[in-house]
Design brief:
- With about 500 residues, the protein is α/β, with parallel strands linked by helices.
- It has 2 domains: about 220 residues, YjeF N-terminal domain (Rossmann fold, 3-Layer(aba) Sandwich), CATH 3.40.50.10260; about 270 residues, Ribokinase (UDP-N-acetylmuramoyl-L-alanine:D-glutamate ligase, 3-Layer(aba) Sandwich), CATH 3.40.1190.
- Helix content is about 40%, strand content about 15%.
- It contains 16 helices and 18 strands.
- The strands form 2 sheets. It has an 11-stranded mixed sheet, sandwiched between helices.
- Helix 11 crosses helix 13.
- The longest helix has 21 residues.
- It is elongated, with a radius of gyration of 26 Å.
- It starts with a strand and ends with a helix.
């Protein structure tokens, strides 16, 4: 089910497996897997393929040396930039053996300080400079080498992780660091979270996994996974013919301060188009008479509504008035499923008492912050949140006893018990106003249809991103896609999933 492993977990698996194998076996397998992945990216005939291999000073460099030797034996024209360990650093016997194999091949060694690479029409670059152990920013001549590779117009295959990328967090190492922009990554032993969130999706490209023939017994159950339809497939049930609007729940979207009525309208329109039986748009100030674009919505004054009769989505366009805070307090005190977004999160961040009340709720509770909202709730800054998105989401989930969806590239969904999932769908088309309101309305609709809140968040985040992906493939983005365009695409995606599950 698409498990993800931290660097510490990978080290444990690797150590246990290595103890049962001949010395150097895992490095040799990694090199062969890297070479195989490289061959898939080269022309059918490798006789004239020009491959640049970067081999760093550690064991990731050893993987690259093994891959270079294998590629050379296929007939590819391999140029190898080898970064030897400095005098104070010890090199492993496995890496030393890999170096000898590379020197015995036809690979041509080239000086590391020769960064003038643009003069060759490369078919592929294989990046084995630094692996999962990098702790310091890439600097000096190697920084220049990374910059030179990133200017090339060819495929780039990273071995394990793109050099310069933190395998746990997905951040480029260092405040002004650099990393290899890979088009493809072949990652070893197990998949890593940093390849799929924060900067990871920009730098890792398409990710494939080589388990290196390690026995499954060495893999402990993972607490972190990539999102997958399998996680919420049981909720994708065809509707009974003998049903009515009351069968599919009520959603009440609470927001709509003056000048911000568009946010709750977007959320409510999404909820009605995502299957909720009835949807109310509740306004903290003067309500609209109706939504001309979606007259099925019922527009009411929030203060006059019984919050116990619907799944509550509070925050879109809510504002920060005393009336808004009072509505949030009532929503928290209700026994209804609750999703808090946008201004509701900012009100929570400013009031420890509201946070305590939220954490004590018995009913399902979901929070959908973007990184700045998460930073406010955690009492920190956006840089700290983005530096470790997994930790931020897990901390919020545990502290507020809620399922948390920390939005962004590779949205992180975390539960209070520490379980976490990184979403795989979505693209930069979602980086526009209103898409968060759409996500909130979608999740509210699934909650109203009795999806458990963990599955509702997983399904909503996946569908939200998939709708954007489909629209982009159809030429509707990513530039200029608007939030409202997602709504019919979400409806289509949801119905297709249900139809597929019913087969």
């Amino acid at each position: 089910m698409n498990p993800l492993y931290t660097v510490a977990e990978i080290r444990t698996i690797e150590s246990a497996a290595a103890a049962t194998l001949p010395p150097g076996a895992l490095m040799q397998r990694a090199g062969q897997a890297g070479a195989n992945a490289a061959l898939d990216l080269l022309p059918f005939s490798t006789a004239h393929a020009r491959v640049l291999v970067l081999a760093g000073p550690g064991d990731n460099g050893g993987d690259a040396l093994e891959a270079a030797a294998h590629l050379s034996f296929t007939g590819a024209q391999v140029t190898l930039i080898h970064i030897a360990p400095d005098g104070a650093a010890a090199t492993s016997p496995e890496r030393q053996a890999a170096l000898q194999r590379a020197r015995s091949s036809d690979a041509r060694f080239r000086e590391a300080d020769d960064a003038n690479l643009a003069g060759t029409d490369w078919n592929l670059v294989v990046d084995g400079l630094f692996g999962i152990g990098l702790k310091r920013p890439i600097s000096g001549a190697l920084r220049g080498l990374v910059d030179a590779v990133n200017r090339l117009r060819c495929s780039v295959l990273a071995l394990d992780v793109p050099s310069g990328l933190d395998a746990d967090t997905g951040r480029v190492v260092g405040p002004d660091g650099v990393a290899i922009h890979a088009t493809h990554t072949i990652t070893f032993i197990g998949n890593k979270p940093g390849l799929h969130t924060c900067d990871g999706r920009d730098y890792a490209g398409l990710v494939d996994i080589a388990r290196l023939e390690i026995d499954a017994a060495h893999f402990a159950p993972a607490a972190l996974h990539l999102n997958d339809v399998k996680f919420f497939a049981r909720q994708l049930r065809a509707r009974r013919h003998n049903s009515h609007k009351g069968s599919y729940g009520n959603v009440a979207v609470i927001g709509g301060a003056r000048g911000m009525s568009g946010a709750p309208i977007l959320a409510a329109r999404t909820a009605i188009n995502s299957g909720a039986g009835r949807v109310y748009t509740l306004f903290v100030e003067e309500p609209l008479a109706a939504d001309p674009g979606q007259p099925e919505l019922m527009c009411r004054a929030a203060q006059d509504f019984d919050l116990g009769q619907a799944t509550l989505v509070i925050g879109p366009g809510l504002g920060a008035s005393a009336a808004a805070k009072e509505l949030l307090l009532k929503a928290i005190a209700s026994g209804s499923p609750l999703l808090a977004d946008a201004d509701a999160l900012n009100l929570l961040a400013d009031d420890a008492g509201l946070q305590t009340a939220l954490a004590q709720r018995a009913a399902p509770t979901v929070l959908t912050p973007h990184p700045l909202e998460a930073a406010r709730l955690l009492g920190t800054d956006i840089g700290a949140v983005q530096a470790d998105r997994l930790a931020a989401a897990r901390t919020l989930a545990a502290r507020l006893q809620s399922v948390v969806a920390l939005k962004g590239s590779g949205t992180v969904i975390a539960a209070p018990d520490g379980a976490a999932v990184i979403n795989t769908t979505g693209n930069p088309a979602l980086a526009t106003a209103g898409t968060g309101d759409v996500l909130a309305g979608l999740c509210g609709a699934l909650l109203a249809q009795n999806w458990p809140h963990w599955e509702a968040v997983l399904g909503a985040v996946w569908l939200h991103g998939m709708a954007a992906d489909v629209l982009v493939t159809e030429g509707c983005g990513p530039i200029g896609l608007t939030a409202g365009e997602l709504i019919p695409a979400i409806r289509t995606a949801l119905n297709r999933l249900v139809q597929h599950q019913a087969r």
